[in-house]
Amino acid sequence: MKKKIVLLIVTLGLVGGAYFLYKYLYKDHREISNEEAAVELAAADLKQMFVDNDAQEILNKTVIVNGTITGIEGQTITLDEAVQSALLITENAGNEGDIVAVKGRCIGYDDLFEIVKLDQSTIIPTK
Amino acid sequence: MKKIIYIFTFLILTFSSYGQEKYSTKTGSITFEASVPSFEEVKAVHSNVGSILKSSTGEFAALALVKGFRFKLALMEEHFNENYMDSSEFPKAVVKGVLQDFDISEVEEQGKDYLLKGSITIHGVTRSLEEIVTVSSNADGLNVSSEFVLNPEDFNIDIPKIVANKIADEVNITAVFTLSKSDL
Questions:
Q1: Distance (Å, whole) CA B138 – CA B156
Q2: Domain check: are A40 and A86 in the same one?
Q3: CA-wise closest residue to A83 among A60, A62, A113
Q4: CATH code for the domain of A99
């Protein structure tokens, strides 16, 4: 009887361990669209942060950026020629001239084009 | 009088941009793969790479923000950024160079190979780069593509022994840029 209980506990332990290991190794990607934004600001202000000082603290953070669409290329929209967002869904992405708010993950500053880049972005409905 | 000024401004602008033609994209793609058979695929795709080609001189530059590489597994992506590439400290990977003997009038639809001589910066380490790049024309501009191999060691990227057998020593890079004429 005692043996059986020990065996049961060991088995449960192994299964549980395997489960947590699996969960760790194959954990899900971040869901940027469901995360709370660390900061909300205008496109030009976000760019200015990178121009002034590297703005390392904002890398990899979820941000909400407000601005006017000044360019559309592939799956991306550019706001005020300062921030380029790669959208997850391009449906209803809007047209040039539209004022929008975009939530995305800030991946850094591209000094070739002098723009800040976001990925995994979604357009959030303006209130 | 105003008209004359306008015409002059127009002429100056036209001529100053002549021969300065630039082709660019902000949505170029780079894929790298360092998979070892029978282990989890080590592969990532970046589809927002910026790139510029100056057609008069053949000068070429591409910049990828390292955090934009997407892996199938979230944990692999995290390790790539935090342990190997230190992407918060070194957020950019840059290629700069000149396509040797580049002449836009020679570029055709089926593509022509050029030698790109320049430098590549990854993980804060800059090394010289000489790779073959294929340039072809399309309706809107130019396609620039290249395939080459890099060694993580060359860029001070340490791969811990415990995972070393799951990651190939040589990393295959594939880059594709669809450039359109721009007035940058």
A1: 38
A2: yes
A3: A113
A4: 2.40.50.140
Can you tell me the ipTM of this complex? 0.85
Closest C-alpha to B63, from B93, B85, B24, B23: B93
Question: How far apart are alpha carbons B56 and B40 in whole angstroms?
Answer: 45
pLDDT in tens, A69-124: 999 988 999 999 999 999 998 777 788 999 999 999 999 999 999 999 999 999 98
Give pLDDT, residue B108.
86
Chain A nearest C-alpha distance from B70 (Å):
10
Same domain, A54 and A99: yes
Same domain, A36 and A87: yes
**Same-domain status, A21 and A60:** no
Task: Search chain B and give the residue with CA nearest A76.
Answer: B27
Residue A3, helix vs strand vs coil? helix
The confidence score (pLDDT) of residue B66 equals: 95
Measure in Å the smallest separation between the Cα of B75 and chain A Cα atoms.
6
Cβ of B67 within 8 Å of Cβ of A107? The answer is yes
Pairing between strand A115-124 and A83-87?
parallel
- Class of the CATH domain delimited by B21-182: mainly beta
Same domain, A9 and A40: no
Q: pTM to 2 decimals?
A: 0.85
Question: Beta strand A115-124 with B43-54: parallel, antiparallel or unpaired?
Answer: unpaired
Residue-range definition of the domain harbouring residue A112: 32-124
| Cβ-Cβ contacts under 8 Å, B26 against chain A | 73, 76, 78, 84, 110, 113, 115
- Token pair for residue B184? 């940058």
Q: Are A58 and A83 in contact (CB under 8 A)?
A: no
Instruction: Provide the pLDDT for residue A24.
Output: 86
